[in-house]
Every structure is written in structure tokens, then in C-alpha cells.
Design a protein that fits this description.
Elements lengths: L1 E2 L12 H6 L1 E2 L1 H17 L15 H10 L17 H15 L4
Antiparallel strand pairs: 1-2
Helix pairs in contact: 2-4, 3-4
Organism: Lactuca virosa
Protein name: Protein kinase domain-containing protein
Keywords: ATP-binding, Kinase, Nucleotide-binding, Serine/threonine-protein kinase, Transferase
Amino acid sequence: MAKTKKVVGTHGYISPEYAVHGRFSMKSDVFSFGVVVLEIVSGKKNRGFSHEAHCDNPLGHAWRLYKEDKSIELMSGSLRNSCVMSELLQSIHVGLLCVQHHT
């Protein structure tokens, strides 16, 4: 793990430990990958996300759905007729594993 004094990256894609503490590790790239996977599945960007029922960020929303066994609700409408549900759910799970706080 390396530590830097100047944090550089796109807001919403850099890992929390890097953004807050300047700690960069292999996990930092994994976090960014997970964000992109969840964006692809949902069809929504990580930045500018809003939900009428709660004020979670996109990752919090994905975790909420996962914990409520409703991950399928994260799926973009454009994927409904062209995806294999088991693969979609696996993709969501991989994305969540990449962005989890605890290793």
C-alpha cells in the first residue's frame, strides 16, 4: 500500500480510503471497476444519482437492494429483454464485492 498527499481521480470512482486518507492500493482499482460494473447494470451514472425513497448514493442503493433480496430492481430497463438473469445477478454481486468496505 502506498500513501500520497495529493489525491487525484474522478469523484465517484476513487476508493474511499484513497479519497479520505490518501491510501492507494490494488483495492483502489478494484473499487473503480465495481463502480463501473454497477453503472453498466443500472444504466445510471454514479454521479448525479437520486432516489425518491431514500438519500443513499448509488452504491448504498445497490447494497440496500441486495440486502432486501431485490437486486434485480437495479437492472436497467434496456437489459430486460437481452440478458440472462443469473449472469446479471452475478455481475451485481461482483460489483458489490469490489466496492465493499471490508476485505
